[in-house]
Amino acid sequence: MKYFYEKGLLDEKWVSDYCWINNPDCIRKKMEEQGKYHPDNMLPDGTIREELSIPRKK
After folding, report:
1. For the whole model, what pTM was predicted?
2. Counting Cβ atoms within 10 Å, is residue 26 exposed (0-12), middle (13-18) or buried (19+)?
């Protein structure tokens, strides 16, 4: 989330309404706590944004 936000690809609401306040409704956080995989482009509400991707080094 931080990466996408800092690159200007994600609205501030996603980090301010979920990440910065430790929102208990964050699906990403719940999955992390359960040790479950979630893709980098999954938003806190569980939505997958296909247009978001982190460049991988070769």
Report:
1. 0.78
2. buried
Residue the block writes with tokens 């999955």: 31
Joined together, the tokens standing for residue 32 give: 């992390």
Mean pLDDT (whole number) for 6-23: 90
Q: How confident is the model at residue 26 (pLDDT cuts 50, 70, 90)?
A: very high
Token code pair at residue 39: 């893709």
Domain boundaries, the chain: 1-51
Q: Give strand ranges (E) for 1-58.
A: none
Backbone phi, psi, residue 39, to 5°: -70, 155
